[in-house]
Each structure stands twice: as C-alpha cells, then as structure tokens.
Amino acid sequence: MSSRIGVFGGMFDPVHNGHLELARSAIKELQLDQLRMVPCHQPNHRLQPKSSSTERVAMLKLATTKFDSIIIDSQEIERNGTSYTAATLANLKSANPNSSLVLLVGVDSFNTLADWHNWESIIELSHVVVFARAGENLTFPKNTQKNLNECIVKSPAELFGSNAGSIYLLDGFNYDASSTEVRTRIAERSNFSELLPAVVCSYIADNELYNDKK
Fold this sequence. Notes:
It is a single chain. With 214 residues, the chain is α/β, with parallel strands linked by helices. It has one domain (4-176): Rossmann fold (3-Layer(aba) Sandwich), CATH 3.40.50.620. 35% of the residues lie in helices and 17% in strands. The chain has helices spanning 17-30, 53-63, 75-79, 85-95, 107-110, 119-125, 156-159, 179-187, 198-207; strands at 4-10, 34-39, 70-72, 100-106, 127-132, 152-153, 167-171. Helix 2 links the parallel strand 2 (34-39) and strand 3 (70-72). The longest helix has 14 residues, at 17-30. The chain is globular and about 50 Å long. The N and C termini lie far apart (49 Å). The model has no long low-confidence stretch (mean pLDDT 91).
C-alpha cells in the first residue's frame, strides 16, 4: 500500500487555529501518513505577507510541535521567486513516486483553480480534497480537456482507489478564523488569543509582529 501525503499550502501569516483544525481533520478523515504544510514564498495572485518567511516558518514549527505526522516543508521559500503549487507537487512526486499526494484547499481557492499556474498538471499529480462549509458548492473551470465533474468521488476509500486525479469534497468545516482577522485584531489592540495557539501568541508578542511598531 502506497503512503498518503497531504499537501497544505498557504501564507500562514500567521498560522491560526483554523489551519490546525483543518490539518487535524485531514489527517484523521483521510488517514494520511504525513501532512506537509508548505508556506508560500511569493504569492501569484495575493499581496505579499506581512511577516518574513523566517517568522512564518518559526510560528508553524511552534504550532505543530505536538503533531508527529506534520512536516513543515520550506521548499517554496527556498526556491525564491513566485510560488507555484504545480511545481511544489512535481517536486514532491519526484521525491515520492510511489506515494499518493493529496492537495488540501478551501472551496474559495478551488473555485479559482482555472487561474492557477499550470493548473491541469495539479490534477495529474495529485488528488484534491476541498474543505467547505455546509452549503458551499464547487465551481469547475469550463472549456477544458478534462471534465472535472467526472473526477468527483464520494469517500476517502474511493479517493485512494487511484494514485491521482480525484476530487473529494469534505464539507461541514465551519471554523471561521482567518489570518486577516488575526492581523486586524492585533493592529486594533483587540484580543486575539482565542484564534491562535498560545505559543504563537507569545511569539507574535515577543517579536512585535503585525502592529504599528513593524
């Protein structure tokens, strides 16, 4: 049986409890052997992060010390330049040819898939698991060579019936925290401690992140 490797990318600026809840859910529901959290270096369609790559990696490591199956993968930071998910998956597939890769994305990100660099190769290299709140729907790119509606599966067991190319919707994920909300609360001097692990709160305070002093 091939191993199952989850791939969870993002700015993590900062990592918050919603990220960790998604990671926990993915590991449990998909029975992942490992989950690689991949901080983005330079986003293609978003503003630059407010904290440095060193700070974001440090917060991720602090937040995940108790998760034996989580690995902080810094390849996009080490690559420099614009970060592309397709390139990250290609690197992981090359290093783990006999493993099944599972890209974890939120429904809002999945619904912009057609705008991603070399997006069709993502479906060729990995499965895609979409986290959504109840009632949220998937939007598929039109006029493509591959009908993504045909890629939808109904269970994790069916997902791993092949090595790549399936899409599974994991709905009912209702954690509403966002990194933007965290940064806004810090800038406004509002309480934000319930949104983050305590060790990340301490790191932010010690390094004076996301406030008017930096």
